[in-house]
Design brief:
heterodimer; A: alpha+beta; 2 domains; 12-stranded mixed beta sheet; B: alpha/beta; Rossmann fold; 5-stranded parallel beta sheet; 4-stranded antiparallel beta sheet; about 35% helix; globular
Chain lengths: ~475, ~220
């Protein structure tokens, strides 16, 4: 009979106390696992979200805010920049050769809480959301540059809003909580993206041309009816990319996309909006996602952010660097604090195991003496007690592992709703493996005291005393 | 001679520091396969003597040789090993582990020696003591007589050379007493194991060919 079995039988004999101590251990381990898993998945998702392009060009301000707003659709960017920045990047003399793909982004509107982003079809046609993985459409197709009022929904946005390809919607200026002002323009949903596990799952993408026209129309309305679009909502320097209503005579509006081959003029079913077209000089952008030409030299690639920033009077940031700063500087510290708290709970649970076994020693002295009388050495009974402690810790740990992933599963929808980060509860992190040696060391440490009591048991004396 | 005790003395220190002699045995022994009954009143040192023979307790002085090995001179771990492989012990209160099944209790008797635990032998022993249908029963589910039979099987499990039985019938009802004694004697005979049984019951003692009265062989008592 193995010593493990002897230890297990001892645990069974005190089933209630054993179950309670193992349960307390499982709660501690569940918290550790939840912290590790959620942090790991968040980190992975953050890094995943920043793939597909090399730089984000945006107005001067906080680089982290820019990245969070444009990549993760969290918070607001610190301002807008002229459309000419995009033009310079694509057609200018200084940087066009460095740029493989450039995708302009305009933000400021929402639909049922999901961010509406004005952009160009290239965002799905030419940008990969992961290395080697292109966007796929679960329904319909990409929006076309020549159809300004077409839109594509991210997978979660479609699911939560109930909109499918063929549906229509009108974005809300800002958010419902801010203004509740619905735009007059309606967009046709022409496609729904397959899930990507990136923040884009919870965004709505509209043709940038339609985005501009919608806002131009909004400003025209604002001129006629201030209540319909409060002027205060249209100040420059906010996160939104919006035309300046005071400077943009609708009659002058001309699409600039034809020039770039990316933005095209309208002229379709939404002809009613044609008069809302804007000239490039009145268009504003939140950011431009830039994929650097792979043929650019390493030195040039490193210098490019500064060159762009200086040349175009903007900031150009590498999202991966900002994510590293965020993860190490903020998220990492929060995780560390949570992890320390969770580990302390595990240690307290470990002490619970020690107290439980130690308290049982007076009852078990006779039993230990019997085992010794059958030939077990002092060291053997000591090992049995240590194994008992280890079994309780590992058993509780195994339950905690399941609980932790279960907890992650329960929290997953909440995390996805709040942050757009999809958490897979079945995704195990390598760092969870450290729990096994960690629990064994903890159990051996807390089991040492009762094990010493077992070691010191006086066999003859204990056999004489009543069982 | 399988067992040989020479000039074995045992004394305990009392709380006031004075020494309390318990045993003073000049010469005592048993041959291989021999069955000896030790008779004595309660408190005369019977259990202490068995503990010394089993290596559970150490003599204050003297030699305790079993099969030529003086266990009084061995390290504690060596004595434990020796006991695990060569000695079986039947306790007055059975001392079965309550969370183990009957089969596991018997297996426990062969767990701590060098030879690997033999499940088949454990089953055979339980069958031999009439408990073939009680293998998976735990002690609380067994009658008192059945528990002591499991204890006998456990004592035989490691194929010992010597079985020490400390008043094995003291807690057994009259109906089961004779069965236990018969079982011990028969199985020890079959396995060619020496048996030293301690009792204060004359009806048990008189069944053995060799009866030793502890009061006679123990110098401490003799001198009192």
């Amino acid at each position: 009979m193995s010593l493990w079995k002897i230890a297990w039988r001892s645990i069974q004999q005190r089933s209630l106390a054993s179950a309670l101590t193992a349960f307390s251990m499982s709660l501690g381990v569940a918290l550790v696992v939840a912290v590790i898993v959620i942090h790991g998945v968040i980190e992975q998702s953050f890094r995943r979200g920043a793939q597909g392009y090399d730089l984000i060009v945006g107005p001067k301000g906080s680089p982290l805010e820019l990245v969070l707003a444009t990549v993760y659709h969290l918070g607001t960017a610190s301002g807008t920049m002229p459309y000419s920045v995009y033009d310079e990047l694509v057609n200018g003399t200084d940087f066009a050769a460095d740029v493989d793909v450039a995708v302009p982004l305009c933000m400021g509107d929402t639909f049922k809480g999901f961010r509406v982003i004005g952009t160009i079809p290239d965002i799905f046609d030419r940008v990969e959301y992961l290395d080697g993985r292109k966007y796929q459409f679960a329904e319909g197709r990409n929006f076309r540059s020549e159809a300004p009022f077409e839109a594509v929904f991210g997978a979660m946005a479609a699911r939560k809003t109930g909109l499918k390809a063929g549906g229509k919607f009108a974005p809300v200026h800002g958010s419902l909580a801010e203004s509740g002002q619905e735009h007059r323009a309606q967009f046709d949903v022409v496609g729904v993206l397959a899930p990507t596990g990136t923040p884009n799952d919870r965004a709505v993408f509209v043709n940038i041309e339609g985005f501009y026209r919608m806002h131009a129309a909004g400003h025209e309305d604002a001129g006629q009816d201030a209540a319909a679009a409060p002027a205060g909502k249209h100040e420059e320097g906010k996160a939104e990319a919006k035309p300046d209503a005071k400077k943009e005579p609708a009659e002058d509006a001309k699409p600039g996309a034809a020039k770039k081959g990316a933005l095209a003029s309208g002229g379709d079913a939404h002809a009613a909006h044609d008069h809302d077209e804007l000239s490039d000089e009145h268009k504003r952008l939140t950011a431009v996602l830039v994929g650097v030409n792979p043929n650019v030299t390493a030195i040039r690639r490193v210098a490019l952010p500064k060159l762009i920033a200086k040349g175009l009077d903007v900031q150009a940031v590498a999202p991966s660097e900002q994510i590293d700063r965020l993860l190490v500087g903020i998220v990492g510290n929060i995780q560390l604090i949570l992890l320390i708290l969770a580990v302390m709970i595990v240690i307290v649970a470990g002490i619970g195991i020690m107290v439980s076994i130690y308290n049982s020693m007076s009852d078990r002295r006779h039993e230990i003496a019997v085992i010794r009388a059958l030939g077990a050495r002092r060291a053997t009974v000591m090992v049995v007690v240590l194994l008992e402690s280890i079994l309780l810790a590992l058993g509780g740990g195994a339950i905690g592992l399941l609980l932790g992933h279960g907890l992650t599963g329960v929290l997953a929808p909440l995390i996805a709703d709040q942050t757009g980060v999809s958490v897979n509860p079945l995704q195990f992190q390598l760092s969870e493996l450290i729990l096994i040696p960690g629990l064994i060391v903890l159990a051996s440490t807390v089991g040492y005291l009762p094990a010493v009591v077992a070691y010191r048991t006086d066999v003859a004396q204990s056999l004489i005393s009543s069982p | 001679m399988l067992l040989q005790l020479k000039e074995v003395k045992k004394s305990f220190f009392q709380p006031d520091g004075t020494e309390l002699p318990i045993l003073d045995i000049a010469d005592f022994g048993a041959d291989a396969g021999e069955q000896v009954v030790l008779v004595g009143r309660s408190g005369c040192g019977k259990t202490t003597l068995l503990h010394i023979i089993a290596g559970i307790g150490r003599p204050t002085s003297g030699r305790v040789k079993i099969d030529g090995w003086d266990i009084a001179l061995m390290e504690e771990a060596e004595v434990d090993q020796f006991r695990a492989e060569r000695i079986g012990y039947v306790f007055q209160t059975f001392n079965l582990l309550p969370s183990f099944t009957a089969l596991e209790n018997v297996l426990l008797g062969m767990t701590f020696g060098r030879v690997r635990a033999d499940r088949d032998r454990a089953r055979q022993l339980l069958k031999r003591v009439g408990l073939a249908d009680r293998l998976t029963h735990k002690p609380p589910m067994l009658s008192v007589g059945e528990q002591q039979r499991v204890a006998v099987a456990r004592a035989l499990a490691n194929r010992p050379q010597l079985i020490l039985a400390d008043e094995p019938t003291a807690n057994v009802d009259v109906g089961n007493q004779q069965q236990i004694i018969d079982l011990l004697r028969e199985t020890c005979q079959e396995e060619r194991v020496a048996l030293i049984i301690v009792t204060h019951a004359p009806e048990v003692a008189e069944q053995f060919g060799r009866i030793e009265y502890l009061e006679k062989i123990n110098g401490v008592r003799a001198s009192r």
